[in-house]
């Protein structure tokens, strides 16, 4: 077996594991790895970010759209600490990712060397595992194990810290006799599957709650088959948007106290059994648990045993890979019953969906947020991939947007870092260059990682940004106003850009992108059509900045039955099919 540079071995493993793009920033302590990457630039594209957090979000977006492991790279010291937010985001949303940092030579680890920081222990709470590689001979096996860990069970990030002298070493390694480590997929207990089917067949008003774990397991087709076979309505969580098309007869909409549809909340509160697959019952979804759990049973399926019973106590818990569990459920129901016809419950769901909705045809100036999303729904097709982060604009997006495909609506759901959507869109577009990519952004989130637009310009990565600008920290302004009766520290506007603060169009143009400002509803669709054309024609990022009503609020509340509506809604009480309670 011949000797080879240790970092050449790493690059060989990256290629074998399916890595096509890496995101990062070179630095002195990681240059040996970059030297090896330079030898395979035709196999792996290296994208230089403008901030290490941006690099991690790019890798995150790449992983979400592909379902494979994303890779982000940084040097020693502050590079690693800058990556922590992105690592935490991937951990919170179960995204497979490997982050790699350079480190001072082993002899300097205990001497407070320049940019020496114990990054392995800093990231431990937000990774599945972190490695400090102290022996060069361990490198191939650490990387193989890192990929296995990132993929297996509940996916997540793994961190690898490489001292400079370890990177420079040569090791014995033969790529021709090495391969990926196997990933174990947990099968369900057959007895538990039989019990689950018992409960489903006994229920009068069952509902399937599809979480992000369904998409992670690539189980959306099985889920739809099960729903259609038993004629059970489906409500996706925010992380599972697209698992069932928005126009599917069994699609209910999203349940929650922020990102939700009114009809979905009504349907949920009338259900008597919830089959939750790969869902964690996060508080923005459940709200008041007493109301959420009242009068209904739960079957909870999750690959992570620690999630079963963590938030609510289910009637039945099943630890399993979502795809294997749904396949077993489908086999069991096909053995026991024939395909079901739509019941009164399904009819009731459709009536509720038609009767309770929010108005989007609002032609006011300044522009109402709902009108922006009407334009988005009309302007972009079902194959468009959206990214969005956190703020009122994300909540409005969750209430008004329509999504038809899995992995086509990507959101940093649990961690919620501002600035995520732009670098994530870059990662998505690099992974799917033929697909249209749109980042829905807020004016404040835009400012967090705006520098990554320069990356899109440099590498000719075209995508559209739709900004809802209200000149506020909107998501903080709303509770500040209603809960604390104040408006303190949340106004970010000033006498520039028509009183809306920073000139965002000028910022994009200064970096080489394109932009246009919209102030009236009739300008929306033409501006979005322009942005789509210009982005692809010039291979550039394009911003459409929309000035919206500064004081516009989003419908929110502490519980599913206590949502406070702001703005007009359709509210027609159905005249038939009133719910039958036990």
From TrEMBL:
Keywords: Ligase, Thiamine pyrophosphate. It comes from the Bacteria. GO terms for molecular function: acetolactate synthase activity; flavin adenine dinucleotide binding; ligase activity; magnesium ion binding; tartronate-semialdehyde synthase activity; thiamine pyrophosphate binding. Residues 390-546 form the Thiamine pyrophosphate enzyme TPP-binding domain. Residues 193-329 form the Thiamine pyrophosphate enzyme central domain. The keyword Ligase applies. Signal peptide: none annotated. It catalyses: 2 pyruvate + H(+) = (2S)-2-acetolactate + CO2. One of its GO terms (cellular component) is acetolactate synthase complex. GO terms for biological process: isoleucine biosynthetic process; L-valine biosynthetic process. The keyword Metal-binding does not apply. Residues 6-121 form the Thiamine pyrophosphate enzyme N-terminal TPP-binding domain. Pfam families: TPP_enzyme_C (PF02775), TPP_enzyme_M (PF00205), TPP_enzyme_N (PF02776). InterPro entries: DHS-like_NAD/FAD-binding_dom, THDP-binding, Thiamin_PyroP_enz_cen_dom, Thiamin_PyroP_enz_TPP-bd_dom, TPP_enz, TPP_enzyme_TPP-bd. PANTHER family: GLYOXYLATE CARBOLIGASE, THIAMINE PYROPHOSPHATE ENZYMES. Belongs to the TPP enzyme family. This is Glyoxylate carboligase. It comes from Sulfobacillus thermosulfidooxidans.
């Amino acid at each position: 077996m011949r000797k080879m540079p240790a970092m050449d071995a790493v690059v060989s493993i990256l290629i074998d594991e399916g890595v096509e793009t890496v995101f990062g920033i070179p630095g002195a302590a990681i240059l040996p790895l970059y030297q090896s990457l330079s030898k395979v630039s035709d196999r792996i594209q290296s994208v230089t970010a403008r901030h290490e957090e941006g690099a991690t979000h790019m890798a995150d977006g790449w992983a979400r759209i592909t379902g494979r492991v994303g890779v982000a790279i940084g040097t020693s010291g502050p590079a690693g600490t800058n990556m922590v937010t992105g690592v935490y985001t991937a951990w919170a949303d179960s995204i497979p990712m490997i982050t790699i940092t350079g480190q001072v030579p082993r002899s300097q680890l205990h001497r407070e060397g320049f940019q020496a920081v114990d990054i392995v222990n800093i990231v431990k709470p937000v990774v599945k595992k972190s490695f400090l590689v102290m022996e060069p001979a361990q490198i191939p096996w650490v990387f193989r194990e890192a990929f296995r860990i990132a993929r297996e069970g509940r996916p997540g990030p793994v961190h690898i810290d490489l001292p400079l002298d370890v990177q420079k070493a040569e090791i014995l390694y033969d790529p021709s006799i090495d391969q990926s480590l196997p990933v174990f997929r947990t099968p369900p207990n057959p007895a538990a599957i039989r019990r689950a089917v018992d409960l489903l067949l006994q229920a009068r008003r069952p509902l399937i709650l599809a979480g992000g774990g369904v998409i992670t397991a690539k189980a959306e087709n099985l889920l739809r088959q099960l729903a259609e076979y038993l004629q059970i309505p489906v409500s996706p969580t925010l992380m599972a948007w697209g698992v069932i098309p928005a126009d599917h007869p069994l699609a209910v909409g999203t349940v929650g106290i922020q990102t939700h549809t009114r009809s979905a909340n009504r349907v949920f509160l009338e259900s008597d059994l919830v089959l939750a697959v790969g869902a964690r019952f996060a508080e923005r979804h459940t709200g008041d648990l007493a109301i959420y759990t009242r009068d209904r049973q739960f079957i909870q399926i999750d690959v992570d045993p620690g999630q079963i019973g963590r938030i609510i106590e289910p009637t039945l818990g099943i630890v399993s890979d979502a795809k294997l569990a749904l396949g077993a459920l489908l086999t069991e129901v096909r053995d026991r019953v024939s395909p079901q016809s739509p019941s009164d419950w399904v009819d009731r769901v459709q009536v509720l969906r038609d009767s309770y909705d929010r108005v989007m045809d609002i032609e006011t100036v300044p522009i109402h947020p709902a009108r922006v999303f009407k334009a988005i729904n009309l302007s972009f097709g079902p194959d468009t991939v959206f990214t969005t982060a956190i703020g009122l604009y994300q909540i409005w997006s969750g209430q008004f947007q329509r999504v038809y495909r899995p992995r086509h609506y990507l959101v940093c759901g649990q961690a919620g870092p501002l600035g995520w959507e732009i670098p994530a869109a870059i990662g998505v577009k690099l992974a799917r260059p033929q697909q249209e990519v749109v980042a829905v952004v807020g004016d404040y989130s835009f400012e967090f990682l705006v520098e990554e637009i320069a990356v899109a310009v440099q590498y000719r990565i075209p995508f559209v940004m739709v900004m809802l600008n209200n000149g506020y920290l909107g998501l903080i302004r709303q509770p500040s106003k209603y809960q604390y009766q104040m408006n303190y520290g949340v106004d970010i506007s000033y006498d520039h850009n028509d009183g809306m603060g920073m000139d965002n169009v000028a910022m994009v143009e200064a970096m080489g992108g394109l932009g246009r400002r919209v102030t009236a509803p009739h300008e929306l669709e033409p501006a979005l059509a322009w942005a789509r054309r210009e982005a692809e024609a010039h291979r550039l990022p394009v911003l459409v900045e929309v000035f919206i009503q500064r004081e516009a609020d989003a419908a929110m509340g502490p519980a599913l039955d206590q949502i406070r509506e702001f703005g007009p809604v359709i509210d027609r009480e159905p005249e038939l099919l009133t719910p039958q309670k036990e």
